[in-house]
Design a protein that fits this description.
- The chain contains 6 helices and 5 strands.
- The protein is of the alpha+beta class and about 160 residues long.
- The protein has 2 domains: about 30 residues; about 120 residues, Glutaredoxin (3-Layer(aba) Sandwich), CATH 3.40.30.
- The protein is globular and about 75 Å long.
Length: about 160
């Protein structure tokens, strides 16, 4: 009887430990830089949105005209329906524009929308455009016009 109690206690401790570890691992996965290919490979909703989106030649041409280096930081949630729509669009637009002056860094955040405090994140997705260290502007949740035009208008 003591052995059964001991085994049950050990099993319970193991279960609690593994559950806590899984929760911590899940939370620490967010707030981390994620590559476009990693996002699309591991999140089917994002991959489907990426495949369904066809950017117009006009929008691609707008991004090809960017003639100074800019960095776009995309703060998003893998759990967020607006992110599922907009993040694949910006990925495809930037890929098809193939402009070496534009770089995209994706940062997945947790449901508390925690990210580096300098971003002052309230809503996802938020795309922040930088020239060097200077913030040029933001697209929050969805573009005012379209992603390409909104980015170019920040310049």
């Amino acid at each position: 009887m003591k052995i059964v109690r001991l085994l049950l206690t050990l099993m319970l401790i193991s279960y609690i430990t593994l559950s806590a570890t899984a929760t911590i691992a899940h939370e620490t996965d967010h707030g981390q830089v994620m590559s476009s290919s990693e996002l699309l490979a591991n999140h089917s909703e994002f991959k489907e949105s990426y495949q369904d989106f066809t950017p117009s030649e006009k929008h691609i041409a707008l991004l090809r005209q960017v003639n100074k280096p800019i960095k776009i930081i995309g703060l998003f949630g893998t759990w967020c329906h607006d992110s599922e729509r907009e993040v694949p669009r910006i990925i495809k637009l930037i890929e098809q524009a193939n402009n070496p002056n534009i770089s995209l860094e994706l940062i997945a955040v947790n449901t508390k929308k925690q990210a580096q405090s300098r971003f002052l994140l309230k809503y996802t997705p938020t795309f922040i455009t930088f020239s060097g260290e200077q913030e040029l502007g933001r697209i929050v949740e969805r573009p005012a016009d379209n992603l390409a035009a909104d980015i170019v208008n920040m310049l």
